[in-house]
Specification:
Layout (H helix, E strand, L loop, with lengths): L3 H29 L3 H26 L11 H7 L16 H25 L3 H29 L4
Helix pairs in contact: 1-2, 1-4, 2-5, 4-5
């Protein structure tokens, strides 16, 4: 029988995997970017995803999963946290606009996921890790939206 803690461990492990994928996503997008400023931002974002991964791994090592306040797997399932960790793949034909849209969606989903985890965390030190991650993902999303607006909304 799977416990609530094991379920949270799976979620946090999946979040770590998504941070690794985000790093790869941003590095690939940076390599393919024709604009130096965009490539620099994408590399910055990639490096921040590595820091997020390290924060999650440290929280896992410190027993963060023992501090979640859900009473049952059913209660946890109702929250549908998996929805935030969906993978949105790029295709070889993805345009720079596609890359930005996907990146914005990924950051928005990561923000929602970490916000939900922070609300479920009983211990203040662990809650602050998830709150910080949520804020940082929101900053990433805003930076990406600003680039998107600068490039694709300037014609209007």
């Amino acid at each position: 029988m799977t416990t609530v803690q094991q379920t949270f461990e799976k979620l946090v492990s999946l979040a770590i995997q998504r941070e690794e994928e985000a790093y790869d996503f941003y590095m690939k997008a940076a390599e393919e970017s024709e604009l130096k400023a965009s490539a620099k931002l994408l590399e910055d974002l990639a490096n921040q995803e590595i820091i997020h991964k390290q924060k999650l791994e440290a929280a896992l090592d410190e027993g963060v999963c023992d501090t979640f306040t859900c009473d049952s797997i059913e209660e946890l399932d109702k929250m549908d946290l998996d929805q935030y960790l969906i993978d949105i793949p790029l295709s070889p034909s993805s345009t720079p606009q596609d890359v930005l849209i996907i990146a914005i969606k990924k950051e928005a989903a990561a923000h929602s996921f970490y916000k939900a985890l922070s609300e479920l965390t009983g211990k203040a030190t662990h809650r602050s890790v998830f709150e910080t991650l949520a804020k940082e993902e929101d900053v990433h999303k805003t930076r990406l939206q600003n680039i998107y607006d600068d490039i694709f909304q300037s014609d209007m």
